[in-house]
Amino acid sequence: MPYGFADIETPVPLVDLDRLAVNLDRMAAYAAMHQLALRPHVKTHKSSRIAAEQMRLGAVGLTVATPRELQVMSEVTDDIFLAHPPLGAKVRRVLTFSGDVQLRISVDSHVAIEQLGTACRQRDQTVDVLVEVDFGMKRMGVSDSGDAIRLAGAIRRQPGLRYRGICFYPGHIRQPVTQQEGLIEALCGDLHNVLAALDDAGLPAEIVSGGSTPAAFRMHLIPGLTEIRPGTYVFNDRDTYAMGACAWEDCALTVLATVISDAVPDQVVIDAGVKALGREPIRVQEGGGYGAVLDHPEVTVARMSEEHGILDLSDSVWRPKVGDQVRIVPNHACIVTHLFDAMLGVRGDIVETWWHVGARGRHSPELAPAPLSI
Amino acid sequence: MPYGFADIETPVPLVDLDRLAVNLDRMAAYAAMHQLALRPHVKTHKSSRIAAEQMRLGAVGLTVATPRELQVMSEVTDDIFLAHPPLGAKVRRVLTFSGDVQLRISVDSHVAIEQLGTACRQRDQTVDVLVEVDFGMKRMGVSDSGDAIRLAGAIRRQPGLRYRGICFYPGHIRQPVTQQEGLIEALCGDLHNVLAALDDAGLPAEIVSGGSTPAAFRMHLIPGLTEIRPGTYVFNDRDTYAMGACAWEDCALTVLATVISDAVPDQVVIDAGVKALGREPIRVQEGGGYGAVLDHPEVTVARMSEEHGILDLSDSVWRPKVGDQVRIVPNHACIVTHLFDAMLGVRGDIVETWWHVGARGRHSPELAPAPLSI
Questions:
Q1: Secondary element (H or E) of residue A23
Q2: Does any domain span residue A361?
Q3: Closest partner residue to A109 among B262, B271, B369, by Cβ?
Q4: Which of A149, A158, A151 is nearest to A200 (CA)?
Q5: A294 part of a folded domain
């Protein structure tokens, strides 16, 4: 039975169901229109329910970063891309969870290829593998065509591994959307060179997987791209808004919080701090702070402790009272869901449903190699 | 049965059991020596097992910040201080969990006093209440003696509430320990004035509760203080070390991570990012970054994505290889435990035990006011 916000214990993430539906539809339509395979990254919501909706709207499969995400999402789809090379004990766990799943994995090192190949042969499994290429973020990925060719060749030489192409994450494109053009052009040129070199080496990339939320709606401008993997678009956040990549009204995730103190002038304290909002900076300057009030975006979470957020009221005439509830649009939605076990689905002022953040968490003591006791 | 690190899926928090024991003993001995009641804040570990050890070593009770922490810790002790005023739906939940617990709550507003008093009368319960006073942090708490007297009087007038004294959190004292003297002196003067004013008003503070980890071992210098509430001291962290409040060897909590990429020169990528380490700044400058390698503290986590941490190797001759495990001392330990469901207890290179981070998490859908379905 639906209920109102007054009954809710704060802090808790609220998902505006109407806004979520709009965001899901918009990306699905964009991908369909441009014949790009859509493989959303589940890191943002970590929820089976939202992932299932993404699949229903035409996604070809899902992207995950952790073994837990893989485990949970393997009940939603049988086509999963682990965009994070597993090493060590993680290799075994990843393969354990991929029984009925056609698993695809990205790598950027020979060590990862060898460990994965060895484990696949031991288990008589086959996984698809993409070479991760870097186009300017300088995080993961090889930036040299020769390195890409050597990794692709090494994958092909490993029984159990199937070389399918390349992937990249254009995380260096975080500028306002109006300033992205030059970066997209440079990316097109670099991508063209890598693809041509792989062709020449007899290692053509059948799959070319890229994409992020900030540059999501420019992905059709990249020749050769076959697949996009946006994540944040389901909720958007204050950072996405500040980049001009969504409207304020597209922000579907807020953290409901309660004002607990007004003892210090020109500020109030809410019960959402770092442990509810994360301490993510806003990358395009938009007043600073760690989030802003949904209905009063001029008011930011200026400082935080673990369980306290300080709303700076000095630029506002609004004066919330102790006991009032406020909704905070976080700078980075993906961090917020990771901090909670459940999200409430709301329409207007009514709570209609709740969803488990099932893919958060990591280490499973029940999977430890030996019985453990305190 | 104990097992080695190679079998562990990363990232995961490791607690060095020997170092933890030293940290627990040191604070217990300090409090005993100076006849200060020790009421540790559980926010740092959120673990029943460590809380029980704190009680065994002489703590008078525990301090908590959230209803979940209260719920879990009510099975460890019957004497709990909720140092975070509950408002709205939280008031009811807090009282529900305090059946056998002598609950103490801090307030700094008349609204909190009225809501708490009303709920206590409805449930025929009595709670102890402290007035929160601010001595310079400018977060919570009244800074004026007159305000403190008015709140104390309001508490006394509410049947169900029992006025017991004051509390404060000296969170503004974060300087290196060698530079704290002036701030401690100022605090002593301000505290003396507030206590004298309450005495004169016929509202003497029986309990004077304060203390934090950075200034923990100076608390005996504050006349009138009856109780301390340090939290971080159980683990310490890179920030505590940078302030000079512990030795590097006192850092008991590390995050075990695996090197997953060395594709970009002068750096390697580990599988611990914001979702494993948090994005907490180091407040006393010590090379920047979001954590440092336990055995190579010159190497910091210079940049992060959600599931990636970039180790900057430019100031080190050490060159970890893909597949190697590393241990990261986080800037802020309290954030790390909040990000995981379990911690592994280690001695040397052997995992001896694991503990559930039982008090993390918040909203309990099972406690929602109405049945919920998807």
A1: helix A17-33
A2: no
A3: B262
A4: A149
A5: yes
